[in-house]
TrEMBL record:
This is TetR family transcriptional regulator. The lineage of its organism: Bacteria, Bacillati, Bacillota, Bacilli, Bacillales. It comes from the Bacteria. Residues 30-49 bind DNA. It comes from Paenibacillus barcinonensis. Gene3D superfamilies: Tetracycline Repressor, domain 2.
Amino acid sequence: MVQAKKDEVRKEIEYAALKVFFEKGYADAKMNDIANEINISVGNIYTYFKNKKELFYAVVPPDLVDYLKKVLVETIHFDNQNAFEETNSEQRSVLLQEQIDVLRKYRNQIIIIFEKNKGTIYTNAKNELVELMIETKKAYLKNQYKHYEIGTEENLILLNILAHNVIDMNLDLLKRDMSEDSRKQIFDALYIYRLYGMKSLNE
């Protein structure tokens, strides 16, 4: 019974912390702010977490970034290998749903990682993700962008622009106040846009 109560309090602290970190960012969040959210003393928080840093990484863990990278790499490989093969539509739907589930479940954490990360290990998270996208995509460059007759250096610049664009589009969608159904519909449309371009949205 006592342990169950402790676990409940810990979850309440983590929930309050995530809310405060999301609203204020790590640098500006205070332990007092978190304590006030659930009407407990700051000292009580220190019973469960030795400092703000430990609490932050409990609710925005590094392994979440690793998971995001894993899903991203899988998506890039799949898209480049199967983009125009209708036989893989079911597999594409499964992969797309996994992305949507991740974005929905960890919406606040993802926004914190990429936009409210001052003072954390995530200050360079966006650039790291862009670099990962470029490195993963490089293997497919020889078969891409032939129509434009651009060289390797230009390809890399183009990939950099596109990678930033993908991240920014998804962050913009996550930050908007809307129903999850609406968010999913727009995410689906963005996915189609990434694969086939603007024209495909009208087909």
